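Re: Re: token formats

Sure, here are both.
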Amino acid sequence: MKKFLTVLTLAALFVCCQKGSQNPPEVVTPQSVTIKPVISKATELSFEQGDKVGLAIIKDDKTKHADNAPMTYRDGMFTSEVVWYEQASTKSQFMAYYPYSTTGMPATFSVSTDQTKEYDSSDLMIAVKESVTPTNDAVDMEFNRLLSRIVVNVNKSDADINSIVIQNSIPTATVDWTNLTATVDTKVAAADIIAQTVTDNSLYRAIVVPQTVSLTVMVTTTQGKTYATKLGSATIVGGGQYKVDAQLDKERLVVSMSSEIENWSDQGEIKKKVVVDPTPEGATAYITKVFDYMPAVGQFTNKLPLYEEGDTQEIMNQKVLAAIGNNKRGLINLGGFGGYVVVGFDHTIANVEGKRDFRVLGNVFYANANPDVNAPEGGSCQPGVIMVAYDADKKGVPELCEWYEIAGSAHEDPKKELWYQKAYDANNDVDIIYDYEITYHKPKKEPTSQDEWATYIPWEDNKGWSGHKVKNQFHKQPYYPLWAKGDKLTFKGTRLPQNGVDESGVGRYYVLYKFRYGYAGNELNVRDDSAIDISWAVNKKGERVHLPGVDFIKIYTGINQENGWLGECATKIMSIEDLHILGVSIDTRK
């Protein structure tokens, strides 16, 4: 049986009284213990805010100090109004269970027969701890799952499924607090259990009592047709998870159950919706923190912001905040491909359904003398890929969060960009590469003549290409970030198609064309497509994810391209602003 560890805390009063004492009783509040429980009962492998357990405290003399006292889960602990007994050396037994019931500590337990709504309340867990004495610390208790879970994976279905029912199991068990087990009550009749839908037409689950049984899986379609198949006899043990594969093909239901017992995990858990307040009181709409900044090689590196001898990474982060934080609207440079900045806010930017949530301000302008008068919009569009992270545990550390990428228009299909054919004809690399990696090598010395500009800083990537970042006559400072440690810099990420085209044909007039949407430094600040919908976020597999909001944003230059005298493509950032706090409503793309 798999055990699950959490903390059960009597956040109560420890009253130490002695007879004959003239001093008032000492009141001690137990210290809070913050851990991350590994209970797979609910989302994120933990109990959730507001969950309740029942607690009994039985002293060595068999008197009950507490009997079915309700305790509520808050911020990683269960708390209650229970007061410790006065005898500091007296030991007691703690008994706890989930889900809480006003009827008392369970001697028997029945799972719900309709788990579309009562799935969580069917998940019986108990914990027992001996020899507990009054303490200021939290009381650790290991909770044990006593029941079993059936997970039905529908691999194929020729019709939409209305429900899946697990038939022929007895829903009631007796609870053995000594051995921490649940035993089927054979005096109770078998029942049908309606499984909870995790994903329509794909994944279903139900909690059942451990028993030896031949289950029947019944599938009902939205058209009202019913199909049932009986499984072979199997012994279902407590704490185990059993996988059933189902296929509804041409009005024939085929099911099979694996004999392998799995540990319960969070796979397939239904995430309870977290709602983020889009306009929290006292919040500012702008960047309030800079966690990291490392530009790649570029003509504005060491200038935006200005590097001064002796500046450390921390000082450069502070300079970035001074430039683009708190609505200052200065400008920072990210350099060539991969150069990045990581920022945060004093609140969570809410993901409001149907709306764009934040805007990235840059220094984009359009060409006003493009030789191709029929060309699509473009000019100084130097797109940066945007990544977002939601701080679910509120630890305030970006490194501990999972990052997701905003899937802009090129992620959808580069060929849909209006300038795609133009860039292709110019021999640009118009592919999008999701696993791109580039390494820049620190130059041994600065160029002493113009002849050395073209071979200034060498680079190579993981696709077999190599080249040099070129120095130009307009910017004489070093292009390699001078506070960076080591003799090389490596960046990884999604490389976007090259959007710069020499429209003059002789190197005089370069136009960097606009992607349709979804990137930083790509659109005029006043246009709607400079705004981002958090719902565009995808995971590493390119699958859409739902985030209730974002706490951290990372932006990195998305293109590796030299554009003649204009220099490298380098994203530049002026600010990021929360549209909801500003009261700006922009619909998402349809």
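Second one below.
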Amino acid sequence: MAFGIKDKKHGKYDEKTESWDKEDLEETSDILEDEDDGEIHEVGTDKFPCPSCGGNMEFSPDEQKLQCPYCKTVVEIENEETDVREYNLRDAEEKASHNWGGDKVVIKCSNCGGATVVDSSTKARFCSFCGSSHVVKTDESVGIKPETMIPFKVNREKGKKKFRSWINGKFFAPGELKKDQTLERLQGVYIPFFTYDSSSNTAYTAKRGTHYYTTHTRVVDGKTVTERVRHTRWTTVRGIYSNYFDDVLVNVSRHIDDDLVKRMGGYNLRRLLPYKAEYMSGFIAEKYSISLNDGWYKAKMDIDQSIDQGIRRQVGGDEFRLLNKSTDYGEIKYKHVLLPMWMSAYKFKEKTYKFLVNGQTGNVSGEYPKSPLKIAGVILTFVLIGLLGYLIYTYR
């Protein structure tokens, strides 16, 4: 679930000293307000104060550093050498850390149920999964801490441009969608993924088909014809296929469809960095909504296909039939990964549509309505062209 972020009010900026007058800053508490029911929730204060003006610094995709949105001060993010840990699936909840760094809370949409982990200073105004303003603070656990992440490389303006280019290429999209209001709720969200590692040993029974050829002679229309006929000799094969699967990536968000993620294009996972709360400043992260065990079930579906292909290569032959197999998995480990997306949800004639922009590459995928008028216009054009062609052919 994703939300808009509202900035804290600041005092006067002194151009001579290039800093904010801290004494003149308004003493405001950060609140979360549901606009529909007027309910207000206290949610804390800034996390990364600017050394110049005291404002909350945010991660800059352009600078790859913390930057103050008020006085533009830039601060380096220390990237000390940190081992990325992977946890045993059996005792995950006991051993894994739930400390995301700083004061984090879970915000939930009462309409679609999406939950997001945010800094306590974040003011959530809407849900980017369904567009609802019914978002409230909860007492839910933030869940297992991410071990690694890819920080945003694409900034908000580039995300908007990518969407405009994408939607302008959709001829049947209604003209209203090509206006800026569609992008007002574009939000940077880190989407949760789990990676799984596991050894596997698969006992299988298969059939290997080997082609061989025979020559047959027959008479056709008084002529002798020699034909080469292909046959298949089948042999039963039993064996063990062993492999180790590393970093099988699984989307563990129920609110972002796997197909949308695939169409958006993949990520360069070699750019993964150890998790740091600084990369989340100014952004939010969806809380995973698929459990570790259910995520492992999804991973096994991908692993299962890879095992079938491995057995096929091991058996060899020209043709292949897998009769049965049984797989034992061992040393199952996982880690929590955050990947960046710009996303928005918008309603068009009572139906919700989503679009995503890959926060690393800028690739776009999404859903959009088709304009009945444009579709009717295209059909009518083809009918008229066909009718004109018929008249020309008939009366020439």
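Residues 86 and 389 are 68 Å apart (CA to CA). The helical segments are 92-95, 156-168, 258-264, 292-315, 372-395.
- S.
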